[in-house]
Amino acid sequence: MSIYQQAAKGLQTVTGSQTMKGSSPQMSSKDGAGGCGCGTGPGYATPLDAMNGPRERLIYVPCILTGTGTGAGTGTQAPDYLATVDVDPESPTYCKVIHRLTMPYIDDELHHSGWNACSSCFGDATKKRNRLVLPCLGSSRIYVVDTGTDQRAPRLFTVIEPREIFQKCDLAFLHTSHCLGSGEVMISSIGDPRGNAKGGFVLLDAETFEVKGNWERPTQAAPQGYDFWYQPRHNVMVSTEWGVPKFFVTGFNPADLGKGRYGRRLNVWDWTTHCLLQSIDLGEDSAPFEIRFLHNPDAAHGMVVCTFQGTVYHFYKTQDGSWTADKVIAVPNKKVSGWLLPEMPAFNTDMLISLDDRFMYMSNFIHGDVRQYDITDPFCPRLVGRVWVGGSIPKGGVVTVLEDPELNGQPDPFMIQGRRVYGGPQMLQLSLDGKRLYVTNNLYTPWDKQFYPELVREGSVMLQIDVDTECGGLCVNEDFLVDFGKEPFGPARAHEMRYPGGDCTSDIWA
């Protein structure tokens, strides 16, 4: 039975669902809760206010054991879990996992989390950022985690079973979660329960977590789905497309290219009416992944990475009120031998923008580098920093680079504190002040197994990269390492990172 068939039937359980509703006091600013503590609601009034918020001291990280049969060396399967990592340099448990919240099911593939409330609710004193919403790419389950009772030891609040999503929304393969200023949570989908592509959105009540139904109007789902970002002052939301789940769940097959099985569009939605207004074609098999508007809520500009192309497009509003996109960055392919294709794309899988809208950071999962661009002029980004932290082309590996427009030779294997790092940089998170960039290297289990089997065997890491915010520049902090290869349940793969008080990839200003 395929992964998407299992998800559709909701068979992958090891225990029953749980609901544990406890008290939820306001989060402490000591651990980076955010906000001014003056009864004005969660988050910050402006992105620049957020830049002056407290330094991060905790990070929540989904740790993936899906499909790897680890189970602390027993060969049995183990559930994914949410790790709490201490990143306070003054703490005795610095760079350590201090808590693990194990999920009650196996093979969930925890993915991109979001909050019940963020800076889009700033000004509403009745709102608290105290629930982390964890959608699952594999099972289409949704976990809601209580982070308000004890930030250092989150607990499970409730579980939304996939059958409810299937029945009420006809959506599956859940990806991105964002809170809305309306008091709701919205989660994007990549497909339907049968594994077909479907770019729709699940709407939850942010207090009760009742599944309210679809955000999009009937028959208005996009052809494909993945990530999204909204900008209320321009009455717009833009979503992206990965591909058709029933093809990508078994790995990346080059034979699927050129057949409409991977995404190519930016889909532009009317934020008020929930209607699909236009689709911007970025080219066949471009696979637009992560998308971000500039944080300034008045800005009508944003960036999106196209994974298979190794490109970045700047999208923006035109004088006639429509939207368009221009290619502004193109990372050249490398001609290689020993890889599954004769040309190796960068596979730029993640991207974020600093809160002052000055810098964009991008991870190239296959090539192995993290890049910093000055986007002061979004029409003409400038590369100002780059660092190599893994990838597929280190010396001594199976891949030989035959022609490289950027490098004179293959980089050395990446080592830190005596530990060889396998895999390529993937998920990124930036400190509020923009001075520290955190990196993990899990993408998606079937693709991890295919591209980086050593990563699955050895587990992933979290790195910290020091950022020059004056002139630009990146440098790996050699004193910082969180090694998920030594976890008690076996080597785990770390995915997206969240601070208790919000961050530049979960907060949207209305």
From TrEMBL:
SUPFAM superfamilies: 3-carboxy-cis,cis-mucoante lactonizing enzyme. Residues 12-29 have a biased composition (Polar residues). Pfam families: SBP56 (PF05694). The keyword Zinc does not apply. It comes from the Eukaryota. Keywords: Acetylation, Cytoplasm, Membrane, Nucleus, Oxidoreductase, Protein transport, Selenium, Transport. The keyword Cell inner membrane does not apply. Pathway: Organosulfur degradation. It is an enzyme of class 1 (oxidoreductase). It is a peripheral membrane protein. It catalyses: methanethiol + O2 + H2O = hydrogen sulfide + formaldehyde + H2O2 + H(+). Its EC number is 1.8.3.4. Residues 1-32 are annotated as: Disordered. It is found in: Nucleus; Cytoplasm, Cytosol; Membrane. Catalyzes the oxidation of methanethiol, an organosulfur compound known to be produced in substantial amounts by gut bacteria. Selenium-binding protein which may be involved in the sensing of reactive xenobiotics in the cytoplasm. May be involved in intra-Golgi protein transport. Belongs to the selenium-binding protein family. This is Methanethiol oxidase. It comes from Gekko japonicus (Schlegel's Japanese gecko).
